[in-house]
UniProtKB/TrEMBL annotation:
Keywords: ATP-binding, Cell membrane, Ion transport, Membrane, Nucleotide-binding, Translocase, Transport, Zinc, Zinc transport
Entry keyword Zinc: yes
PROSITE patterns xref list: ABC_TRANSPORTER_1 (PS00211), ABC_TRANSPORTER_2 (PS50893)
Biased segments, Polar residues type: 255-268
InterPro entries with a match to the protein in the record: AAA+_ATPase, ABC_transporter-like_ATP-bd, ABC_transporter-like_CS, Metal_Ion_Import_ABC, P-loop_NTPase
Stretches with biased composition (Basic and acidic residues): 243-254
Protein name: Zinc ABC transporter ATP-binding protein ZnuC
Length: 268
């Protein structure tokens, strides 16, 4: 069974169509990355996956008992508040020293345990957020632009850590990233979102897909095009995109949109 199955999800926010018939799955142990221009619905899709937003129609099916660890883009900590990494990991729920050390080690942050949160560099801070997400021993890690603000080396190191985690623990990863060059080498599958799924598949397949090239250009530095792209939902050729319309499609013959999430969600 898939860890997550999104079937034909449509969602409006503020009267605007943000997710248009989106389908995708995440299988155990795989790394799936969502790419797409600003405002293309990536964060919204992540919120649907963790159950923070309910779709207008379509189904979100989580494997029963699924544990999700969520690594946010940023977390604001009051700079006047003395808070060590160790204490941070025990908020809001106390964790044992053993669990805290194990999670920090897995996140490559074992040496940071007694440091003040406010003294950490951007990369160190993200590793601590990763450690916090690992405390629940998740089956699936969700990273929403977790390396935003890090330099290239910092984010490459962070993604290497993610790959090691997948290798050592078999955790699946669903992430949103703007760093296409890193994403292309790290992911098993890439889903290109622009309100709807423009194209999807192995990174090499997506990189050469006309829909992807229309959004990001042809070079590995197409990431730069990301911020310049005019992202109307109609940008992709719908007839052509029809062949690629769904990252994964199942006909369950019923609307599950009212389903309550069955999983345990950990938010860091
Ligand atoms: N609560 C909301 N109410 C109304 N519109 C919203 C809301 N949240 C998001 N939107 C709109 O939905 C669209 C998709 O937003 P979303 O944050 O999912 O995009 P994104 O692909 O993650 O963008 P970015 O790359 O800039 O982070 C945007 O046009 C945004 O303005």
């Amino acid at each position: 069974m898939s860890l997550i199955e999104i079937d034909n999800v449509t969602l409006h926010l503020g009267g605007r169509l943000v997710l248009d018939d989106v389908s995708m799955t995440v299988e155990p142990g795989e790394i799936v990355t969502i790419v797409g221009p600003n405002g293309s619905g990536k964060s919204t899709l992540m919120k649907v996956v963790i159950g923070a937003l309910q779709p207008d129609s379509g189904a979100v099916i989580r494997k029963p008992g699924l544990r999700i660890g969520y690594v946010p883009q940023k977390l604001h900590i009051d700079p006047t508040l003395p808070l060590t990494v160790r204490r941070f990991l025990s908020l809001p729920k106390r964790v044992s020293n053993e669990a805290a050390h194990a999670a920090l080690d897995d996140a490559g942050a074992g040496h940071l345990c007694m440091r003040q949160m406010t003294d950490l560099s951007g990369g160190q801070f993200q590793r601590v957020l990763l450690a916090r997400a690992l405390l629940s021993e998740p089956d699936l890690l969700i990273l929403d632009e977790a390396t935003q603000g890090l330099d290239q080396t910092g984010s490459a190191d962070f993604y290497s850590q993610i790959e090691r985690l997948r290798q050592n623990k078999g955790v699946a990863v669903l992430m949103v990233s703007h760093e296409l060059h890193v994403v292309m080498s790290t992911s098993d599958r890439v889903i290109c979102l622009n309100g709807h799924v423009c194209c999807h598949g192995a990174p090499e397949h997506v990189a050469s897909a006309p829909e992807y090239r229309a959004l990001f250009g042809t070079g590995t530095h197409g990431a730069l095009a990301l911020y310049r792209h005019d992202h109307s939902l109609d940008h992709c050729d719908h007839d052509h995109a029809q062949d690629h319309a769904h990252a994964h499609t199942h006909d369950h013959g019923q609307n599950h949109s009212q389903n309550q999430p069955q999983d345990k969600v950990t938010s860091a």
